[in-house]
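Quality-control log, excerpt.
Job 1 of 2 completed; input and output follow.
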Amino acid sequence: MKKFTLIIASMLACLFNTQANNVTVTTPSVSGQNLSFKISWENSWNTNYAPNNWDAVWVFVKIQDCATQLWSHANLSTVVGDHSAAAPLMIETVSDGKGVFIRRSAVGGGNISATNITLKLNVPAGTYNYKVYGIEMVHVPTGTFTAGGAGSEGGQYNATLIDAAAQSSGLTAATIGGSSVGIPSTYPMGYNSFYCMKYEITQQQYVDFLNSLTYTQQATRVDVAPNSPANTYALTSNGSGNNRNTIVIQTPGNNSALPAVFACGASTVTGYSNGDDGESIACNKLSSADVWSYLDWAALRPMTELEYEKVCRGPMPIVANEYAWGSTDITYYYNANGYLTNALMPTEKFTSTVSNGSCLYGVNSSSGSYGPCRVGIFATNSSGRSSAGAAYYGAMEMSGNVWETTITTGNSNGVAFNGTKGDGALDANGNYDAATWPVYSGTNGVTLRGGCWVNTAGYAVMANRSYPNYNQSARAYTYGGRGVR
């Protein structure tokens, strides 16, 4: 018989109301192999008109063996009937059992109030503690789109139709252009359907990730030793915080045996990860290995740069020099605390009026007071695609905020990727180990897309490929990312 044991937050940093931007998952209860909880989130949709898609939450479960204290990924049943969701939601299973998608079962829109969910686990006999995680996603349907640019975008592809024939036969280097190598049919070009994270990885999501790792794994995924003093900033080599990254050591680890407890700690006077600590800010200072290790742990995968263009443009025709929202409109915003209301909170927003082409770009300063902002910061109940800065299928900040880390078509390491998904586990040193993902060395298959809060507007142009073979070997204040499945 398994048991559910509450874990004291100060010891093991369990968040029983786990939030990923506006997703809330309540404390789960377990009976035999059935795990039950309530889930809620805001601004859900399922449309039967353009863009003909829906949003969803990728839900996965981690279990901690009470004998070893180690966390691992829990498999779920792949049989739809083994799970249940109260109206208006439904469960969509995946073939590897690494999680489920929870989404609206019918056309509709609005907030999802706390709704009962029961999932059937497929885990060995034992005594465990449980954590349930939720990541907001948007569905990108199967369909034809056009990759490339038609203006002054740097390094852009030729205007190339990506259809069933292209996906099944591949593309030659001459056809796709843009200093790309030939692209085989096994490379995910974006024609086939997939889910994309609605937002960039947030600081709280990265904290949740760190707090399920061993001491040795943590040491690889942060910039300071996990046994550093409390309140040491984790993703800055000198241990002092800047550029709005608030991740700190809450409780130091112990001599490579006991892992540290990490938290968002912008305002430790009121406690850690307490709603005013930058939890919803896009996580910067991440290398490609950090991003991809997070994705492997979450049983997601990296996005290819062709999929990036599909998410942004959808089936619409090319607009020369367009941004992710499909026009050349762009409005510049300073992204420092003095220009924000409710800074560091889930309701963080700009003091100025949101305009068409809303984008975080062009600060051109590494001053510690500047940095990325809350994910989804421009979206309101009345905003349109341009004023929200949204991509065609509803993903946010595909232009601006932090760079998107994608898999390149610019070298053989990149195009060897065949869409292998993460399995929920890292190697003993805390590195991703999924097959066909580019090896983390040299020109390792990384492309940076979408620009960031520092760079000029030209880098935020959707088709810009100024870094087709980028060696992202270090953490920087402009790097972040998201994943797909």
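Job 2 of 2 completed; input and output follow.
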Amino acid sequence: MNKFLSIFAVAAVALATACSTGNTDLTKSGLNKNDFVATVDGKATALYVLTNKAGMEVCVTNYGGRIVSVMVPDKDGNFKDVVLGHDSVADYINIDGNFGALIGRYGNRINQGRFTLDSITYQLPQNNFGHCLHGGPKGFHHSVWTASQPDNSRLELTLHSPDGEAGFPGNVDVKVTYSLTDDNALEISYEATTDKPTILNLTNHSYFNLSGDPSNNILDEVVTIDADAITPIDSTFMTSGEIRPVEGTAFDFRKGKKVGEEIEADDEQLKNGMGYDHNFVLNTGGDITRVAASVLDERSGIKMEVLTDEPGIQFYVGNFLNGKVKGKKGIAYPHRGAMCLETQHYPDSPNQANYPSVVVRPGETYASHCIYRFSVVK
């Protein structure tokens, strides 16, 4: 049975069961768990729900390890979903996009999909302007992860990536843990080991709209990024190895400003990125206790802080959203209708000796930690 027919058959059974029992089985965000039950590449998919004592809810599917919804309170105490996504596993499979996905083996771009490690040159898929983006077209975001939920606030996802998958060396075993704390923080912990020297750069590709209304754009949301520099890009979104100061440019978010304040400035980097789509060189020095970036929506009062032990963060503002993709509840996602804050090592690090290394060797454990912490400003 092909992938589509398998999904269709399982969905039909789930629908019939729901209709016969009157069971809606809806999450706080309005998702139906039955819509995430399918078999993809011989593996079962499902929807997992994390909750905390404060009433926050996070829904994750093991298809691509995707964060499907994040329900947080606004300044009036009403819970709102602040991430973009789809309300069925079939839509995640059939509609191109990285909404909420776990990204690997290498988040962001590698120049011409090629790198050399220990005198061996490896060729990866070239799926974006001749470069390898997010591990190629069949990266971790299209894998079915093995899921285990130890308690209501924690989900563990594991994946084995075989030697040579998408051209990357080494048998790699990955574990990603989503944890929801009682102070309304979603923590993501990444771990991985390998049996050959390889490169790893894992991240999450959630699209945030803190207004809680995905039909809004995010141009009025106030962003602060603790970064003195960016890694500039060319017209193919590729970095050169340069680290360029943000002082006096539209990329200076150190004191906080609205996304739309300077997005139309006459700036070559904004033209190359079609807006903000750049890696920011963080000042936090890997200190997970320091806030690397924050976002505030003054309409909802919802604030999100990003903390990480990674050296960089990719700030992307939905420049490629165009109103054609319909997400949860059939809402069309508008141009610049959300932003991503992807914690990471820098793009093309395997080919840039002056960037922090992404090499992982046998006997070492790759580790990365990211926190999205939510609060309310009244």
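Post-run check on job 2. DSSP finds three helices and 28 strands in the chain.
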